[in-house]
Specification:
Distance between the termini: 54 Å
CATH class: Alpha Beta
Strand order of the largest sheet: 3-2-1-4-5
Largest sheet: 5 strands, parallel
CATH superfamily: HUPs
Shape: globular
Low-confidence stretches: 162-167
CATH architecture: 3-Layer(aba) Sandwich
Number of strands: 5
Number of helices: 6
Order of helices and strands: EHEHEHEHEHH
Length: 167
């Protein structure tokens, strides 16, 4: 049984993420979507909210589980007895960064392979950061993010505005 881990911050989960999840879930017997924390990013959603969104979005995918991890990705991959890390590559810039990460992971854990998957063409330009900015400015992003995520983002933004108004 082959197990792969698809790590990310998933803030927010996009249709590009779901495309990679679907494709990786057809390639591997078991796929673990691993929600991590990136020290340089400031997420709009809490870890618990991202886990809940991804679990709802993947609930019909029988071989997909969603988990949180802290620390080194390779330690998590070993802990769940996986042998493969899935990474998405949209652009040449992504490739440079992901290539460095893959080499570092290989240095720390030579038994773990990294597999790069390109998203479908219609999602090749989608980034969580751009989606967040567009939704904050009132754009309808339902072509790029699931309706569930768009609704959650609007709710989050409106509660954030209400809190700022109280100050």
């Amino acid at each position: 049984m082959t197990t792969a881990v698809y790590p990310g911050t998933f803030d927010p989960p996009t249709n590009g993420h779901l495309d990679l999840i679907r494709r990786a879930s057809r390639t591997f017997d078991k796929l673990i979507v691993a929600v991590g924390i990136h020290a340089e990013k400031h997420p709009a959603f809490t870890k618990e909210e991202r886990l809940a969104l991804l679990r709802k979005l993947t609930k019909r995918m029988r071989n997909v589980t969603v988990k949180h991890y802290d620390g080194l990705l390779v330690d998590f991959v070993r802990k769940v007895k996986a042998r493969t890390i899935i990474r998405g590559i949209r652009t040449v810039t992504d490739f440079e960064y992901e290539f460095q990460l893959a080499l570092m992971n290989r240095n720390m854990a030579p038994e773990i392979e990294t597999v790069f998957i390109m998203p479908a063409e219609e999602f090749s330009f989608v980034s969580s950061s751009l989606v967040k900015q567009a939704v904050e400015l009132g754009a309808d992003m339902t072509k790029l993010i699931p309706r569930l995520v768009q609704t959650a983002m609007k709710k989050k933004l409106s509660s954030g505005r209400a809190a700022k108004d109280e100050l």
